[in-house]
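Researcher: Here's my situation. A collaborator sent me these components and asked whether they could plausibly form a single complex. I don't have experimental data yet, so a predicted model of the whole assembly would be a useful starting point for our discussion.
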Amino acid sequence: MTTPAPIPWEDPPAARTRPIWRYSQNPVIRRDLLPTSNSIFNSAVVPFDGGFAGVFRCDDWTRRMQLHRGRSADGFDWQLDPEPIRFACDDPELATFVYGYDPRVVLIEDRFYVTWCNGYHGPTIGVAWTDDFETFHQLENAFLPFNRNGVLFPRKIEGRFAMLSRPSDNGHTPFGDVFYSESPDLCYWGRHRHVLGPVPNSWQATKVGGGPVPLETSEGWLLLYHGVLTSCNGFVYSVGVALLDRDEPWKVIARAAPHVLAPETVYECVGDVANVVFPSAMLHDADTGRLAIYYGAADTVTGLAFAYVDELVRFAQEHPL
Amino acid sequence: MTTPAPIPWEDPPAARTRPIWRYSQNPVIRRDLLPTSNSIFNSAVVPFDGGFAGVFRCDDWTRRMQLHRGRSADGFDWQLDPEPIRFACDDPELATFVYGYDPRVVLIEDRFYVTWCNGYHGPTIGVAWTDDFETFHQLENAFLPFNRNGVLFPRKIEGRFAMLSRPSDNGHTPFGDVFYSESPDLCYWGRHRHVLGPVPNSWQATKVGGGPVPLETSEGWLLLYHGVLTSCNGFVYSVGVALLDRDEPWKVIARAAPHVLAPETVYECVGDVANVVFPSAMLHDADTGRLAIYYGAADTVTGLAFAYVDELVRFAQEHPL
Amino acid sequence: MTTPAPIPWEDPPAARTRPIWRYSQNPVIRRDLLPTSNSIFNSAVVPFDGGFAGVFRCDDWTRRMQLHRGRSADGFDWQLDPEPIRFACDDPELATFVYGYDPRVVLIEDRFYVTWCNGYHGPTIGVAWTDDFETFHQLENAFLPFNRNGVLFPRKIEGRFAMLSRPSDNGHTPFGDVFYSESPDLCYWGRHRHVLGPVPNSWQATKVGGGPVPLETSEGWLLLYHGVLTSCNGFVYSVGVALLDRDEPWKVIARAAPHVLAPETVYECVGDVANVVFPSAMLHDADTGRLAIYYGAADTVTGLAFAYVDELVRFAQEHPL
Amino acid sequence: MTTPAPIPWEDPPAARTRPIWRYSQNPVIRRDLLPTSNSIFNSAVVPFDGGFAGVFRCDDWTRRMQLHRGRSADGFDWQLDPEPIRFACDDPELATFVYGYDPRVVLIEDRFYVTWCNGYHGPTIGVAWTDDFETFHQLENAFLPFNRNGVLFPRKIEGRFAMLSRPSDNGHTPFGDVFYSESPDLCYWGRHRHVLGPVPNSWQATKVGGGPVPLETSEGWLLLYHGVLTSCNGFVYSVGVALLDRDEPWKVIARAAPHVLAPETVYECVGDVANVVFPSAMLHDADTGRLAIYYGAADTVTGLAFAYVDELVRFAQEHPL
Amino acid sequence: MTTPAPIPWEDPPAARTRPIWRYSQNPVIRRDLLPTSNSIFNSAVVPFDGGFAGVFRCDDWTRRMQLHRGRSADGFDWQLDPEPIRFACDDPELATFVYGYDPRVVLIEDRFYVTWCNGYHGPTIGVAWTDDFETFHQLENAFLPFNRNGVLFPRKIEGRFAMLSRPSDNGHTPFGDVFYSESPDLCYWGRHRHVLGPVPNSWQATKVGGGPVPLETSEGWLLLYHGVLTSCNGFVYSVGVALLDRDEPWKVIARAAPHVLAPETVYECVGDVANVVFPSAMLHDADTGRLAIYYGAADTVTGLAFAYVDELVRFAQEHPL
Amino acid sequence: MTTPAPIPWEDPPAARTRPIWRYSQNPVIRRDLLPTSNSIFNSAVVPFDGGFAGVFRCDDWTRRMQLHRGRSADGFDWQLDPEPIRFACDDPELATFVYGYDPRVVLIEDRFYVTWCNGYHGPTIGVAWTDDFETFHQLENAFLPFNRNGVLFPRKIEGRFAMLSRPSDNGHTPFGDVFYSESPDLCYWGRHRHVLGPVPNSWQATKVGGGPVPLETSEGWLLLYHGVLTSCNGFVYSVGVALLDRDEPWKVIARAAPHVLAPETVYECVGDVANVVFPSAMLHDADTGRLAIYYGAADTVTGLAFAYVDELVRFAQEHPL
């Protein structure tokens, strides 16, 4: 087995009031990294083969939403395959790719699983696995439409796969709660439980949805998620932090009232969709407690930010709703 | 075993252009049959114990949507329990009844299963079983919200339970397609397939949803369903007919372009929601091919109508989209 | 002083489940009672001069909303002045009549006060007084726009005039709570307090607004009010009952969960606005505890209904939310 | 030439306050006159061949909107061709019939012209002519989408064909003014002029659109038209009357503030679209000044009403806005 | 008494076409001046105690809208109290702080009065006074909800307090006019008069609302106000100027058609709400006629701009609507 | 005749993936080029008199939309007349200028024709001609409202003038297809044909509209056009390319799936309307095949970009939908 690469990192600025700080060279992935990409954002990365691999949302010039594989030695500099992923699938009903966006990637036992917003008579949660980031084997869609932001837990809970998702409608959904579902086999899903919903008069008043794959800590599952506020000029997407029970992850142990990252920089406030920070992946260094967080910025580019696990855990515990 | 009661029936009128005709004494169940009912409609009935039993949507004076059990000797004259059903359920998360409406009842093997629109952080499909119409054992909700019109097939398909449903949003959903899902155990559901959607420039242009439990015929599953047209003054609900493949019921074999029942009478056009006919149950007499169809009228009362199975099958076959 | 006329009355039907019953000859005022009236509804009546007098909402054929005076010997048979009321007013800014609708009339000390929805750069609450139902002296509008359903209490509270109203927007307002305000002089208003709001998942889920002038009882102020539910085909207006504290009337002592009158008859369900019962006045016989309730039906005609005060009080007390 | 048939007629009721009165046997055409018709309304009739002929909007059970030819000896009793009109047209781009509704028919010189709302990438004004009510020759669409209610004048104005129409959008248009356009050849149209628009705070506050073919009188063109008010429960369609300048018909000489017909009867208030009276044709008896007016009722059936030309002219003159 | 500090000032740029110019170091208050502030904008300042004091809208990381006190020696450099203001109030019904935003501060006679948008069952106008900017004594809300932008005049008019406000709805109100109200005692308000409304086809087509406290000049009250245009991508807030009658301030003497400040810089066009300049306070130097104008920019930061009183007065006079 | 000036030009950057590249000194026309202009964009230029002339959309500080004439020697540096164009027109009905925006200019035979969005009871297509860019002679509006983006072809087709336009509604139209119309005389228009519509799941999913005057090439008419995608935060306007049949220009020969220019720079993403690139004119150098494209940016300034005709033609051919 190869030695894992160190995760991307920059030390925090000297004077700091917030638990997350941005990469000084953001955007870490620019919109036109691929010769035909209109934008690259809301993407997912994992340690792989002595470096990093990932599945990337690339909207091409036609604004077709597609998923591309990519590799990086250091997590900063990424090479993306200009060809979108073509999922291997025997069932012709599923095999027709309509659109795919906002992927997450997680290693469970010995396979990497990708979940994404998959077009099948509306958006739902597509599921596939790979062990080489070359061939991706598509499974059944987890749920009926309309759903987005399907996020698998990195281990089985009580012997069953576990997923967060956010039921939606068929448009720019003006509502949204996070639910928890279980599956014995990644084919049939059930035991749906409500996890968390919007909070009135706050940055997360309109809707919330899962972010990166939750990280297990002694205090519970560390969940970064996005929340949306509706201003008179549209949605504003920020990032929140919560802790879920380790054994019954639909139970919220702690949830911070304040956001931990909100659109402030030009590349977060200006782009195809103004005022969006959307966390979709994080890399964890267990020895140091460091986190490298990848997030979509303005639905146009990919940002990178950093944090310490223990600070985020405490922030969730110490700033209750 | 008791001898089954004959299903309700009236012969068709002499001059008839349509495959379904109304009961001359409609509404068969009036809005105030219960002393505290504002309206009784979109209800489900089955043969039971030498007569008929059913689960009824009764909105009380508070307009709380609840389910009531009921019995009838002849299918015309109904006695409803003034107390709503309290489902037996061990899990406190599920046991809290928020609202329930639009039930369907089906006999699968040796149990009667009830599905209904169940409030759990939004409408989804509740599932319960009974063998005596006294105690109803609540199972897990089949799907994540938002969903309505969950309709179980009366037998397993390929060894798995099968259900139609209509994913929705959290309001007066202005869209809706019918999907098919499977479950090995009535707990976990998957293998979701699209069945049928709206048809532009027609009575079913806005949305469609399942109706009574499908009836198996040699030509396929006979499906009555509702379709909705949006006029400048709101929704108009009518009834359509289709045939689904017996083995792969998500495949539509035949589907009639015309509606087979549409709001025409005063009790269908005037009430809490004008212009609604909503089929929710049917009784079948195998010997004669007769059907007694129960339907909600104007979201206020329950109507009864009659048809012959073979005529409906032919109508679906001979009036293609 | 003249002997007051007996209020209109019909004994309740033999079998009765509800605390309010309808006049058998409804509508008591038909839409074309005036030669140029399109509709007459949401009107207010009081005992006057040995009979009854009132202010009536009459929409003419142009659908101009105007107020007309009217008289009746028995409360059933009404004579309306075909000429709309022209308010006496010295201030030219106020004197321009734009539109007026949904009046209430109340006797406070020695004057009859009329409040109505008055057009002044949007709907607000107009106020006027009369002692002869011939000349009506217009005062300042009570509030800024947008407001509707201003209802004065029949006596001063703590030495100040008291009014219920329902702040609105400039259209078919999809929200609405009842507030309480005070005035030392009917010119300046303040000390605004929230009284009651909508109730989710009920007949009053969208908005609520005051009805007839509250009636003081030993149990508190008896308030009939309207509540609105939004169906997929529009608003449904029903009638509710509550008791307010006698000294601090913004405090709700009791409020019935069920409605006490809802659209059921053809003249309530069919008309210029389907599915409306809107209570706007009541006559009280102190000796017998009888109430005669006038209400708008389908925004087209005027209905009359009857009740006993003590039954309504008990209904509010015994059917809590 | 055949002697023209007398137009349908009933004398007015004894006590009458309005210039238009209904046929006592309404609806004159019921919704199911054809074996496959869901509804028949908004249709147009003319004297023809010693009786009457017309083009009828028939929505079939699929709710496809189609045009059918029909004949009547007396204007009361109609025989409709169950086959929809198939227009003769050489240009394949135009020849594809998508939908057609709300026809008008007019005799200009020696041909009958039909105009209707024609589906061509949205609703626009289709034009065709016939001289036998058997073959209908389709011409170019008069305008770009989106347009409805195209009404030709019965003679050329200044040597050019003249048409009223109501530009729209692609839905249940919430706005609408009547415009006037000219054409030298029924192919190219221009010199568009505004004629009349909605009137705030009235029965015609939302939109207005042309009705029957205008009738030339010594006082100007007599125009019946529909106007729409938006209640909280949807549109209400009523009928208005105006006089247009004979030589420059875009100039309004007189326009009545009140409506002259509004939904009042059950067949006008209840049906596929509640609260609609929509005038689409009138027959004129020059000797007596009688008018027989055909109008759609509740978008479901066809009504018939009667008036005297001179009364309508005076009504427009004597009830100014 | 201390000598007043000179107001902040920068001379205008050499070439200038507009009556208002921006501070070269804008934003004068950045979004994170407080350690927990998400944004600081729409705030109010006055001369106080030899320097300046103010009440500031600070939205914290939770996006709770709160009011903070602040002090400055020179009007450029501000120290804000990180603790929000807790209003002193005896009435528990009022004492519950829900949210507060968009304050104005004015000196009337010997007290400073604060008005702000105060959450009480919807937004309304909160009123409080202070004489030390430490303790703020809360009075009754001036009006019923829904209201925003309450602006007191700096002296009584005809012996009564006078306030401008903008009645609203409960969301991102798409309409809004400015009204004038009077009060003998800051408790009861009345004599409401319309002042100014939107202007079609202009930068103020959607709504208008009061800005800083009006400044009395020989030509009338100088009013800066905000106006809103709705583009296809949301609201655009600009600044306008008008003159009101000194004795009857609801009478508009002059009103400029053009805006005098509109979003142009990055900090005005990019932020939590794009394209907002919102004037909320101004400091006046009577000797020089200089004005320092504080305004919210993009609902994120506070901008500063300068003008001469006489130029603004002339601009209003010379650019009529 | 004067020698034509060379069109503006910059060679493409070395590494280039797209067929259009921006002028390095953009915006070529800044928002405040005129002393009273709020913004200058969506303007049209042509070679004229040895240099260039144009008609410019200038919104003044009042946000009145007006048209101004302008001249330039080199196409980079423009002098605009501060006085708006006052069209010469004999008909008083047309002569009233309400608003004008988004002009196009084209030379047909010996006259320059201007088309623009002209306010006449809603937006429609105004038409005028000039031969000196001093006097502009207004003709009849081409169409009924509601219409925008009228673009004349530079020569007659089959002997008739030809125009593209985009029927609309009266607001921020959320739909829109391009149609083709013909006229023998620029007064009467007809033979309307559908050309192209939106493409689902793409940058042009909401609506499309014509851009600069089409350029005739051997491969067909080269059409640049704008397409709009609706994000959760509003419209995004990009540029597409298509080829139309030379003889029957309503027939699309080729149409590129990807956009060829989309908002990326700050001056395109930030301004009065974020995220707009709107092509409105192009200059062609026949010898070199060079194109200089003028486009509105963020509805605020005017951008300039460059391309080669043959590359655009190939792009349309090689990237089919």
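Model: Some features of this prediction you could bring to your collaborator: Chains C and F do not touch (no CB pair under 8 Å). Residues 309-318 of chain C form the longest helix (10 residues).
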